[in-house]
Amino acid sequence: MLERLPAFHREGRINAVIETPRGSRNKFTFDAESGTFRLGKQLPAGAVFPFDFGFVPSTLAEDGDPLDVLMLLETATFPGCVVRGRVVGVIDGQQTGRSGTTTANPRLIAVATKSTEYAAVRRLRELPQALIDEITHFFVSYNAATGKNYRPTGAFGPRKATAMIEAGIRRRQNATARRRKRRRALRRVA
Prior knowledge:
Layout: E1 14-20, E2 26-31, E3 36-42, E4 52-56, E5 67-72, E6 82-96, E7 102-104, E8 107-112, H1 129-145, E9 149-156, H2 158-189
Parallel strand pairs: 5-8
Antiparallel strand pairs: 1-4, 1-6, 2-3, 4-5, 6-7, 6-8, 6-9
């Protein structure tokens, strides 16, 4: 059901499916096959997610997963909660896995429509630089703790972030079309 949720709600707002709530040491992951959330990993002692973390449905990033999003909201929600928000930017980066393969891994930053503290924020640059640095550091250290390397390549505004979402929607649509075509071909052979 969640995989059929559109990326955009309306008026430029996105839908975000929260996997891991703010303040959690546990990283949860949505399993599309079973439609459930499972415990993916646990962060080292003292490390927690600074804000709700999840994905933009109906998108596909270059790493094969939906696009990641960090949702700015004063309090934690819960795994599976759909939060609508306004994209304010993206921390772009490259992630190198344990195998040595490097892929693009942008981290979208959005403000929840129900946020009061961040309600006036329209662009990433309107956030305090210290907060952007802390978020960036979180992604670097989070990946390092799991044996991966995350190298930030820049912080950009809502226009680039929205273009990434639109590209992610097209990538997902193309992947879905290829799967359907393969299934039809297999049915013809059988």
